[in-house]
Structures are given as C-alpha cells and as structure tokens.
Amino acid sequence: MKHTSQVSVNPRNLRILNVVGARPNFMKMAPIIEVMNQYPDKIQHILVHTGQHYDEKMSKSFFNDLGMPKPDIDLGVGSGSHAGQTGRIMVEFEKVCIREKPDLVIVVGDVNSTMACTITAKKLGIRVAHVEAGLRSRDMDMPEEINRLCTDVLCDYLFTTDRFADENLRREGVPDEKIFFVGNVMIDTLLKHREMAAKLTLREELGLKAGEYATLTMHRPSNVDDRDTLEGILEALAEIASTVPIIFPVHPRTMKMADRFGLTHYFSKGEVVEGIWTTDPIGYLDFMHLNMGAKMVLTDSGGLQEETTILGVPCITMRDNTERPITCELGTNVVVGNRKEKILAAAKKVFEGNIRKGTIPEKWDGKAAERIVEILVNSRVGCIPCTINWCMECTLHSSDQERDS
Ligand code: UD1
Question: Structure pTM?
C-alpha cells in the first residue's frame, strides 16, 4: 500500500475518505473533490484508490484528463476473482480506516471497490455515503447488481440520480431521510468538459467526419465471456461496420476473451479506419470527442447510456436490461439485448433517421456534486447519533494525538 497523504488534521473538520477503484468511478468522484476543495475549513478529504484498475490507460490517464489530484493512498489490489479482489480491497481498506479514522466514507458507482469499502467501513461503525444509489437492473447475474444491493442496504446517505432510483430504494424499505435526489455527478463532469472535448482533433486525425462513424464499448461478462454470444455480437457489428466504421477502444477483458476464442479476425487495426477498428482504451476527453460526432454509440456500459442522453446521440445498449431506465424514457437510449438481429434492427432505424431526440432528465444540470457536499456539510455527519468513537463532535471522541498515532 502506498500512502502519500499530506492532509493536515483540523479536529473540527469533517474527515472524509473518498474511494475510487475502477475507470467509471473517476469521472464521478472528480466533481465531488472539486466542490470539497471549496470548503477547506469544513472538510478534510483523502482520496483512496483501491487499484482495481491499474493500467495507465484505464486509470492514470483519467486522472490527467479530469484534473484530479493523485490518490493520497493507493491500495494496489489489482485484478483477481470477485472474492479475491473484494477480499484484498477489504483487508487493505480496513487498515486505512483504522489509521485515518474518518467520519465518513464516500463510495461511487457499482464496482467491486464500491461494495468492498462500504462493508469494511460499516463494520467499523463508520458512516458511508453512496453516490449513484438506487439503480437496479433486477439482473442478479450482473456482479454490479449485487454490488448495488449490498452497498445501498448498508449506506447512511443514498444520493440518487433520478426518481426511479428513489422509488427503488423506497420499495426496498429505505427510509426517506436517507434518500437524497441530487442529480448526476457523471453529467457534472461531462458538462464541464464538453466544450474542451469538442475542440479536440482526434476525429480529424483518424480521417473521420461527424455522423459517418459509430463508437463502441463492450466488456460485460454477459457479452464477452461466452464465445457464441460474443461471435453473434461481432457478426452484427461487422455488418454495421460495412456502412460506417466502428471505433472500438477495447477493454482488456474483451481483448483477452476475443483472443482466447479466436475471434480477433473481426477486428481491424492500423492507419486506415475501417470495419470494427480497434484501439487501446481511449482517454476521457478523446472518447467524449468521438462520441459527440458519432452516428450512433453501441455499448454495454452504464455511463454511456447517460452521456449519450446529454449529447443527444443515439445509443444502442446491447444488454437485456438497464439500471438506468430514465435514459430510455427521456433520453436517446434503446435497450436491445445481445442478439444479432435485434442489434441490426436498432442500427437500421438509426440509419433510416428513425431516432428520438430525447430530453434532459431533472437535475442533470452540472450541480449534483454541489448538492451532495452541501448536504454533507450541513448534516454534521458522524454525530447523529454518533456511534464512532473518534467522532470530533461528540463526547466519545478521541484526542488528535490518538487519531494521528
Ligand atoms: C469493472 C467493473 C464494471 C465496470 C468496468 C469498467 C466490477 C465487478 N466490474 O469491470 O462494473 O463497468 O470495470 O471498466 O467491479 N484489466 C487490465 N487492466 C486494468 C484493469 C483490468 O488488464 O487496469 C483486465 C484484467 O485481466 C482483469 C479484467 O481486465 O481481470 C477485468 O477487470 P475487472 O476490474 O475485474 O473488471 P472489469 O471487467 O474491468
């Protein structure tokens, strides 16, 4: 574990551990940290990276693109089986919690790091806030759905992106006092960087014109871990790519599986962008730039369903379900499953111009992080009622010296 925390301790401050682990976490945490920096006399925050994602292109490049500070603490857990990875995160994060004695842990999204750090903190009696709570795909074959359920049932603050999420939580018996509809932090980040991304030149460098290519992300186990499923999807994509090239920044999991199944002949590479054109994972800004000008986005990711809704670009989600139904109700998203004919039928509609314009969901306005931090600052976390024996405000609190030792 690498520890580079320079944070000085002011006992009256709210002491927060912000947790990130995998690629989609970074753009969710970035705006929260930015707003927290506006409260130097109220909040001390420490950024913990579990190391679930560790490749330069899956992790560090996002910190650079988003202007995020380097993690104060890197747990360096890396990849592994679900239990192996989750367990390693818990063991390492427990040490951090015991040493840093936070008043609150903030987790985002639905990856293994989200759940592992929630369980660890709660068992130490530390309050936990979940940003992007209440999303439900109702698909227990998705590891993320298990992570969401375990996280939400334990958390003290449930910050939601839309009214569907509020309703899901209520139906699960979560009391109203814990649910805060704040909007979408991922959209905070998108709106902040949108102009910057529009000015980039990658599209030109690749010889592409707006509206004459598609983009693709695909890494879900349900799509890439079974040979026949993956081949069916690739057949559909190859057919679409005979009309417009598909830019495919390949996730390491997908490349590993395509290699193993002998399916890499579907991919093209090199100078000329044609067919299903593959490249290493692309940075946040460059990918937003490409998505903005895409004819359509094909995906199995969660975040892209939301981003395309804001960008007004047709999104074809190659999954049987979505935890983000609002993107279908209001946005540009259609969920079509992973069968070849369905994917092709959806793409055909886009080529025919049969697309929905979509509207922007409530509170996806760039201010979600502000709302979250205001709520935390005003609610005197850790003191209502205090169960944490190092809480700064209550009678049980330990001395600064003890906290620092
Ligand atoms: C994880 C999340 C998923 C999220 C995705 C975004 C869970 C359960 N899944 O899936 O919700 O949508 O991140 O990318 O938390 N690998 C590398 N380099 C890396 C990271 C991973 O090569 O930096 C390879 C390893 O072979 C690893 C595999 O990718 O075994 C899968 O990584 P893992 O973090 O286990 O899950 P993801 O598929 O990335």
Answer: 0.92
